[in-house]
């Protein structure tokens, strides 16, 4: 097709539809007839976007018949000319064409102004509930699948980014065209049942091969971006308005309760007023749940520096991701034979049919709730639920139902490692704030950091580390072995905790599976105030343990997988500083390792309130500090004597005013082993890998002008691969840590 689009588009399904329509519209004159519009739209939508081969659709005037993989007509489409007043004639033509094709599932009609899609149903279904939403034309009964104001959407695409110019409902309307893709229409036969092969089982695509895995990841990305995120954003917008009215009415009802209590002093007099308040709160439970989940996420993810509209869009995507993740995880559990049933399209049909007989409403949200209950017998999540409120919304449930249906096309039997790959690939394309996992280019830092800390290193590596740090091989031989306890206080996307878990399990390769599970649960701990980071880390770790868990249950069906040790809590909040204090694992003072990449959030970006007040209690909270410095100080509490610190932190503490207090204290808390500059930026400065041993654990802090650190050497380098130079501990003065590039001779160790 010729002609360039007028807008700027992305790679999502909605963007591709709008771009194709923009290109197609630019090639036609204002007097283009129905036949020309039909040919142009078929090539743009069915060919360019939905992925049909040109031989899959036949054009007969204004009418096109689109065939599935078996050669059966699955969609009829009729176009209206550019000068048509409405699309009525096109709608009738499309239905008339469908009347001669018993295999048709969808009837579509329209032009560049408006596009309508109807889903065919059995005539007797029109007698039940919702009959007013059905129409019968030319003997074909159908319900509206989607209605797209195409001209308005194309104009929005020319005005800016579609995520900002299109309302969520408009995005969802376009996204529903995914149901017309070849894989979707080919998966259902003339009777509306899943397509079957010679075995009679549903034809599903295995994720065991790369092509199937790629298709799965693309499908999940489209469900997230084009179906669930717009639906969640629309539900959120509705409830935000509801919250405003709820607050005003709730305040009035609370005043009424207080007034009733003040009346004659009889508590029973306030009973009716309290009943009205409780009824009001129950009626708005989903709005209050949204406020709680949104507040937890904004605070934990450090989103105080963003605008409300930016935060609402980002939160909608996080919630949509949780729903997609849960649907995927349910299929993985079923594929691993850990649950007897999964949330499938067939299960949804059975649930809704049963509910209709019982006279109650049930939808995909109820199906997901049932799936959660089943999974608790296998694993009960520790990470907070951010999506519960959204599952009460009809639009979200409809998008979830379509997602569940798309997952029906895949088989998750076999190696659980493919589920690990699928989830990691999904993270790489999900576009989540703070999550940048890229399986194609793994981060070398977690392994380098654990090597530097001596976690899981061989005896030869330990001896080499001792020589490089100025100590003896014998001294390092006394270091805590791999079995020591490790804390990652800022899990992010979980890469450091996962690397530690892989080393721990590798060291126990000859042990029973249940012992490996117990070791991960008891020896590793992760934390973050960000509920998304906790969820992602927990899920990634869980998927890697499924093989061990399945093996353990094969010999002992009663084996339980306790919640993994990933805590949604701000690890910088000491007990009593703010809120109810930290979980017990974050109050420990005997960890053998503290590793990770804590956030380097600048002081100006920490919102005023109890958290900022708690941060201000740190010695390192000096001048324009960043939070990574506070983690260095907090680790001095967590680590046992001779415990190892290995953190990626902002390196500007070495020679700036804000690092003055930290420079004074680090020599008295730690014996440095390495300072290595890393690529990237952190709080406006080059980050460094800081590796050190905790010492003087039970000794008081002394005046830095009077303190002289013991004589030893440590490595200072400009990168992970740089051999670096040796520095003397004499350089670690409270005033500055500046030195020339030549290193120090005669350290005298």
TrEMBL record:
<dbReference type="GO" id="GO:0032259">
    <property type="term" value="P:methylation"/>
</dbReference>
<dbReference type="GO" id="GO:0009007">
    <property type="term" value="F:site-specific DNA-methyltransferase (adenine-specific) activity"/>
</dbReference>
<dbReference type="InterPro" id="IPR029063">
    <property type="entry name" value="SAM-dependent_MTases_sf"/>
</dbReference>
<keyword id="KW-0489">Methyltransferase</keyword>
<protein>
    <recommendedName>
        <fullName>site-specific DNA-methyltransferase (adenine-specific)</fullName>
        <ecNumber>2.1.1.72</ecNumber>
    </recommendedName>
</protein>
<dbReference type="InterPro" id="IPR050953">
    <property type="entry name" value="N4_N6_ade-DNA_methylase"/>
</dbReference>
<keyword id="KW-0808">Transferase</keyword>
